[in-house]
Amino acid sequence: MDNDNLGGEKAIIEERRKKLEQLRDKGEAYGNSFKPKNNAKNLHEEYGGFSKDELSEKNIKDISIAGRIILKRVMGNASFATLRDSSGDIQIYVTKNNVEESVYEDFKTWDLGDIVGVSGSLFRTKTDELTIDVWDLEMITKSLRPMPEKFKGLTDVEARYRQRYLDLMTNNATKEVFIKRTKIIDSMRKIMNESGYLEVETPMMHPLAGGAVARPFVTQHNALGQDLYLRIAPELYLKRLLVGGFEKVFEINRSFRNEGLSTKHNPEFTMMEWYQAYASMEDQMNLTQEIITNAAIAANCGEKIEWGDQKINLKNFNQFTLSDLVVNHNKELSKADLNDKDKLVEFLKSKKIKVEKNWGKGRMLLEIFEETVENNLIDPSFVTEYPVEVSPLSRRNEENPDFADRFELFIGGKEFANGFCELNDPDDQASRFEDQVAAKESGDNEAMDYDKDYITALEHGMPPAVGVGLGVDRLVMLLTNQSSIRDVLLFPQLKS
User: Fold this and answer.
1) Which of 100, 118, 246, 372 is the most buried (most CB within 10 A)?
2) What is the chain's alpha carbon radius of gyration, rounded to the nearest angstrom?
3) pTM for the structure as a whole
4) E-strand spans in 166-234?
């Protein structure tokens, strides 16, 4: 903001503070007695279809509403203003004839951004706009700072994220995104409840870093004198519940990963994870599809949607193996080459992908997939048969033990869900934890710790099960056509 604007804003704030002091002197500052009976949306829905004569005949009185002044036109003895509440906007009409003259004179000095309460009756103006004819009004909250300009709004993108309250105050499209977000999550919870899943809550702070392959945040508990980790994923606790006897559980909550900030990643994000004993991968792929298509209905976006410049058909769910996709998208590779470590190294180097010393064939195969295939999966695509090397918590496939019974869902070239048959063999799981510890000792900051208690739980016996994690933020991005995760988080993480 330039110096002239800063000076202008300072003068506005000083003037508004003088008005606040006058309100304080009269005992009218920051009142809490006004209780609105109506909101703007309901008034439009209930009475918006009535003509001017019908409204006059019905004589609808005792309307009361509270909201922020976003427009104001003072015209001598009569004035119009527009109030905005959480549901929408409605016009009010204030005249000397209907309110006390002193109240009207005060109203003329009220500013855009002030929160006021009004009572009155409904009518239509000459321009046919539904309006409240005010007979009583009061100041509720004095706004000391000016609102963003009406037509420019909050144009600075970073300011929209840092001062989300101003973005919501002035931009109905932003507010609609977050209303849809709530509807999407409600639809997800509804399906899980109807399918017999129990919603649970598991710890946010873990004594060990685990549950997924990612770099954790570390904090310290002073009383215990020990480090704790903000959870990377709730997986290991949810599976302990399967050991305890619950057969269908889910959780919608935050997870934390100490990774970079981007349009795709925020260090804290919302996931829905669920686990079902005695289920199959096909069962859970079907449930995942149902969750997404029902969320699209809740967001009122239809089956054929646009996400940026991509056109996506949510009715067209596909299924492929990871190996088939890699070969189909890279004609230089054959199925036999995927078992040849030297060929994989050579191919990765040709694509200028750095190969780490501790990578096996499975990790290299995944890198090739992520670099050459992932972005091309536009319509919903379930990808199956992931290497065990990159699936430390997944059950091995009985026919090919180098691969796991695992799937990931991609839409618009991005991962949306990860699911797999859970590893319930305690010895196999212990061995894979040991591999993770070795990887961590070799410098892999994303590798898991060895969770001894989880192994103990498995030794008590966990039924065969399938678990799925679905990214809520990314699903909201898809169904509201937002290109950045920051546009679907009310308060995204930003650099100071």
Assistant:
1) 118
2) 29
3) 0.91
4) 198-199, 205-206, 218-221, 226-230
pLDDT at 210: 82
Instruction: Determine the Cα angle at 274 with ends 302 and 285, to 5°.
Output: 50
Strands (E), 76-217: 78-85, 88-95, 115-124, 130-141, 198-199, 205-206
What is the spatial distance between Cα 77 and Cα 102, in angstroms, rounded to a whole number? 12
Q: Which two tokens stand for residue 14?
A: 């000083």
User: Which tens digits make up the pLDDT trace of 331-381?
Assistant: 999 999 999 999 999 999 999 999 988 899 999 999 999 999 999 999 999
CB-count exposure of residue 18 (10 Å: 0-12, 13-18, 19+): exposed
Residues present in the chain in total: 496
* Structural domains of the chain ordered from first start: 3-147 (2.40.50.140), 170-330+373-487 (3.30.930.10)
- Nearest CA to 130 among 56, 199, 192? 56
pLDDT of res. 2: 53
pLDDT at 45: 97
Closest CA to 178 of 451, 484, 477: 477
Q: How many CB atoms lie within 10 A of CB 94?
A: 26
Tokens of 229: 């980790």
Predicted pLDDT at 443: 85
Of residues 81, 200, 55, the one with CA closest to residue 137: 81
Q: What pairing do the DSSP bridges indicate for beta strands 248-256 and 268-277?
A: antiparallel
C-alpha–C-alpha distance, residues 470 and 287, integer Å: 11
